[in-house]
UniProtKB/TrEMBL annotation:
This is CTP synthase. It comes from the Bacteria. GO terms for cellular component: cytosol. It comes from Xanthomonas citri pv. citri. PANTHER family: CTP SYNTHASE, CTP SYNTHASE-RELATED. GO terms for molecular function: CTP synthase activity; identical protein binding. The lineage of its organism: Bacteria, Pseudomonadati, Pseudomonadota, Gammaproteobacteria, Lysobacterales.
Amino acid sequence: VLGYADANSREMDEKTPHHVIDIMEEQKSITNMGGTMRLGAYECVLQKGSKAYEAYGTEHIQERHRHRYEFNNSFKEAYEAAGM
């Protein structure tokens, strides 16, 4: 979407300069991982006119999660400018 050939998840590549998917802030200090990840449905509000809104056809969606990683919001403005 942004044209970064080296974009990746920090989970897959710790050294990527563009970690578009990163560990959740509240997970960074946790060393005992048992039972600490995000589980279940997560409500998202999609911006009208975005590619995600176009794909889902609605403003409010729920996605199921079972992980400690999420979208890195430091890329939010660039993604929005690209229509996401």
